[in-house]
């Protein structure tokens, strides 16, 4: 199934509206509070999602919405827009322009369209099933990685792993960095854009929610990479939140072996 051009244009419009809400507040004055899960939410998160939801409800009234801040709408719809207004709220709050707005369209439970938008830097990755991935309008491609030793590995924070997950992650790091273990930390969704553009080789995360990973799948896979859970299964709307992103799909077995069959 190829994604329709008008859906791609709508996703770009949603990213524009989110950026308009976020940029005036970046490194400025904003209110924040902790949610029930103890994570932070700012007025920028809420304003950006509200702006996107208003557009979807006006232009695609029959579609569903799954948003981080405002929940679900038309939950049973075959087409679901999945929104994370600011993925990397901690980076936004610290004034670091490596957060992003994530927009996905899922159809029949599978992500078919994804946008990673960094509105401060003016960087946007768009991936669509059947059409490939672009970075600021030009084709984006992952890079070859002949073996796991020497691969550049990224994760947002090792503190996001439980003990068993941390052990599995560190086994991969030990294989990838046989001399000096210098993986990339920080970045949230931005790491997946960098992987899609050929700057990273592997991203390992766990505990992600649908709005954290749905948009990433079409971006990474449209650029020639692959995404799976920690068992090697493709990601859909029911996945468990464990995520591997590889620029070189041939390295999946190497990564799973290094993780110890977690």
Care to describe what's here?
- This protein has helices at residues 5-22, 43-59, 89-93, 163-176, 190-196, 210-213, 216-222, 252-259; strands spanning 32-34, 40-42, 64-67, 71-73, 79-87, 100-107, 110-118, 123-128, 132-135, 138-139, 153-155, 184-185, 202-205, 226-228, 243-246.
- With 262 residues, it is of the alpha+beta class.
- It folds into 2 domains: 5-139, Fructose-1,6-Bisphosphatase, Chain A, domain 1 (2-Layer Sandwich); 153-259, D-Maltodextrin-Binding Protein, domain 2 (3-Layer(aba) Sandwich).
- Helix 1 (5-22) runs antiparallel to helix 2 and helix 5 (190-196) runs parallel beside helix 7 (216-222).
- The model has no long low-confidence stretch (mean pLDDT 95).
Summarize the amount of helix as a percent range. 25-40%
Tell me the strand order in the biggest sheet.
4-3-5-6-7-8-9-10
Apparent shape: globular
CATH architecture of the largest domain: 2-Layer Sandwich
CA-based gyration radius: 17 Å
Q: Roughly what fraction of the amino acids lie in strands?
A: 25-35%
